[in-house]
Specification:
By secondary structure, the chain is an alpha+beta fold. It has 3 domains: 12-94; 135-192, Helix Hairpins; 201-345, Histidine kinase-like ATPase, C-terminal domain (Heat Shock Protein 90, 2-Layer Sandwich), CATH 3.30.565. It has 9 helices and 7 strands. The strands form 2 sheets. Strands 2-4-5-7-6 form a 5-stranded mixed beta sheet, covered by helices on one side. Strand 6 (327-333) and strand 7 form a beta hairpin. Helix 1 (12-41) packs antiparallel against helix 2 (46-91). The protein binds adenosine-5'-diphosphate and magnesium ion. Magnesium ion binds at residues 249, 252-253, 309, 313. Magnesium ion is lined by residues 249, 252-253, 309, 313.
Length: 352
């Protein structure tokens, strides 16, 4: 969040205004005394001199004062009118308006700067929201069109049993994709709206990682991956179900982006007072561009894998780690592989 300028306690505009008024009073008093002196020198009676000079000087002061007041108020009010117009545009959804930041009054400059920062922030949120909606619609459309297509094909009564079975299984695959997508969107939106992790407990992290890895056995068997584990007995304090999603997403990616016969290395333990989990693959790795966007919602770098997953995995992982006050580090080289390191606080309580 950019820092907004602070409006100072003693505004410069007010000081200038006070100085102008004091100046007018001083000049008119000096002129009044001057005129009285001249009239007395001309031997005009004291009372007449005082009355005449005061009258002329009152007229002079009024004219000059009104003139200066009209000039300064127009000068001062015009930026306020502009701010008002700009605020009206923003309220109608136009986030392109910006105010001129140069002004005679520092306070106006500060208001203009804050206003511009505010509109920029608002437009960012709006863009994110629009992107999110269009991404969600797009992600839903693909499996829905596939389901519609296969269901239409199934209406053909001349299909062989094998063809029917294939189409039904395609429909089921796409249904499961939709259901996983919905699950991920719901989890992510729920996690984004919560600030604390509920139901934390101390449990054995190495056991959890082993269990998650086993649930992916069919996938790493199919890819003939070598599994290299260095899992030290490590108690950790945190949300068991949320952290399970972290390991599951990271292991899923490591397998998915590995080449046949590759190696998947996973370690966990306590280092430098932190619980550290490392997941490394020697698969396809990431380009600089993919690395920069890997944690973005719906971002999928590898075109050939877009059918698997929805680009929400790493966004979910990052949110869970941030809620758990941990850190995540990503190292990756195109063609060489990827290493993800997650560090969590080492707050142990008795293992349940
Ligand atoms: N271990 C990895 N090796 C190479 N690229 C990866 C790895 N993990 C993630 N990525 C890249 O980051 C992108 C985002 O990952 P993720 O959010 O899990 O989405 P998904 O797995 O659904 O594609 C992936 O599409 C891929 O391009
Ligand atoms: Mg993934």
């Amino acid at each position: 969040m950019p820092k907004l300028p602070e409006i100072k306690a003693r505004p410069r505009a007010a000081q200038i205004f006070a100085a102008i008024i004091a100046g007018i009073i001083a000049v008119s008093m000096a002129l009044t005394l001057g005129v009285i002196y001249v009239l007395l020198k001309l031997r005009i009676g004291t009372i007449t001199a005082v009355v005449t000079s005061t009258t002329y000087m009152s007229i002079f002061t009024t004219v000059v004062g009104v003139g200066i007041a009209a000039y300064t108020s127009t000068k001062m009010l015009s930026p306020i009118v502009k701010i008002n117009d700009a605020a009206k545009k923003v309220s109608r959804g136009d986030f392109t308006v910006r105010l001129e930041e140069k002004s005679i009054a520092k306070e106006i400059e500060e208001i203009a700067t804050s206003f511009n920062i505010m509109v920029k922030e608002l437009s960012n949120t709006e863009t994110l929201r629009n992107d999110f909606v269009s991404n969600v619609s797009h992600e839903f459309k693909t499996p829905l069109s596939a389901i519609e297509g296969y269901a239409t094909l199934l209406q053909d009564e001349s299909l062989s049993n094998e063809e029917q079975a294939t189409y039904v299984s395609r429909i089921l695959e796409n249904t499961s994709r939709l259901s996983k997508l919905t699950q991920s969107i719901l989890s992510l939106s729920q996690l984004e709206n919560q600030e604390i992790v509920l139901q934390q407990e101390t449990y054995m992290l190495d056991e959890q990682i082993r269990r998650v890895l086993l649930s992916y056995e069919p996938l790493w068997e199919e890819k003939e991956l070598n599994i290299d584990l260095a899992l030290a007995a490590t108690p950790v304090y945190g949300s068991k179900s949320l952290l399970a999603q972290v390991w599951s997403n990271l292991i899923d990616n490591a397998i998915k982006f590995s080449r046949k016969g590759g190696t998947l290395f996973i370690s966990c333990g306590v280092f430098d007072g932190k619980v550290v989990v490392r997941i490394r693959d020697n698969g396809i790795g990431m380009t600089e561009d993919v690395r920069a966007h890997a944690f973005d919602k719906f971002y999928q770098g590898e075109r050939s894998h877009t059918g698997q997953g929805s680009g929400l995995g790493l966004a979910l992982v990052r949110r869970i780690i941030s809620l758990s006050s941990g850190t995540i580090d990503l190292q990756s080289k195109e063609g060489k592989g990827t290493e993800i390191t997650v560090s969590l606080k080492n707050e142990q309580q008795s293992v349940s």
